[in-house]
Structure formats: C-alpha cells, structure tokens
Amino acid sequence: MPTVRATGWRSLASHWPVLLGLVAAGFQIVTGVATDAVATTVAAAASCYLAAAAFSRPWVAWAGILSASVVVTVSEIAGVAWWAGLSAYAAALVLAGICRGAPARALAEQAAAMLVFGGLAVVAVTISPRLGLALAGLALASHALWDYRHLRRADVVPSSLATFCILLDVPFGLAALTLAALG
Length: 183
What we know:
The protein has one domain (35-182). The protein contains eight helices and no strands. It is mostly helical. The chain is globular.
C-alpha cells in the first residue's frame, strides 16, 4: 500500500521543532549576536538537559527553557550576574535530582555537561570581547553535538527539544564565530 505524504501545512506542522529552532536562531541573530546572549543561550540550554535528568521526565526540558529564562531575568533584575543565578539553579537541580533518586548516570552526565558548557559561558563573558564571542560561539555550536547525541539515543530529553536545539545552536553559534573572526 502506498504511503501518503503530508503536504502543505501538515508537513510544516510535523517539522515544528526545526522551524522553531530556525526562528529562534534567526531572532537571536537579528537582535544582535553579543557574547552575553550567546553565552547565556549555551548555559541555559545545558540547564534544560539537567532539569530533565533531575526530574527523570524528558518533557521537563521544554519547561526548563522557561525556567532558565526566568532565572536569568530575575538574576539581572536583582543585580546578580545571570551566570550566578544559573549556577544556583543548576545546584538546586542537582540537589533535587539526588533527593528524588534520579538515575545517577543521567544526572551526573548532565551535571558534568552543565559544568563544561556553563564554565565555557562564564569564561567567555570574562575575557576579551572578540575572544569571548568566539569561545561562546564555539561552545554553542559544539552543544549541537550534545543535542545530536541525545537525539540519536532518544534519552533524557524529547527528540523535539534536541532537534530544536540543534537548529538554534548551529546557526547562532556559527554567526558568533563569524562575527568574532570578522571583528
């Protein structure tokens, strides 16, 4: 029996994570590719994965986007560096994961990824602007490899989130690397 392919709006609707990722990347690029924005994006992305691992619920990664955004915004309103707020949030997620009995391997992997990607983000905002933009762009673009790993394994986060992240991380990260090289 022949397969029927979705066309038009149904086809677009089935690819919503791709479209959403590209729209988010486009928005970020159009509104300005700055070190702080790129670094915040990579650290927030890592926190989404950590949230999903801490609660052993893949869908929590989507909620983690909103949670990380709130943490960054409240931190900045309070006069605290965004990365300090996200660091406290990450520590709370690890503690919640331990208290809930989250699978140790997933929690440890995501905590380590948060340390690496978050650490690179912090270094990026503390060094020279051009080098910082390059480092933040490289960290964000390389986060797409982390996304791809989870997409292939179908673990920790939903495939829709991993797909969305790849399509956000690669263009936004490459835009940062390009601007740093031209700067």
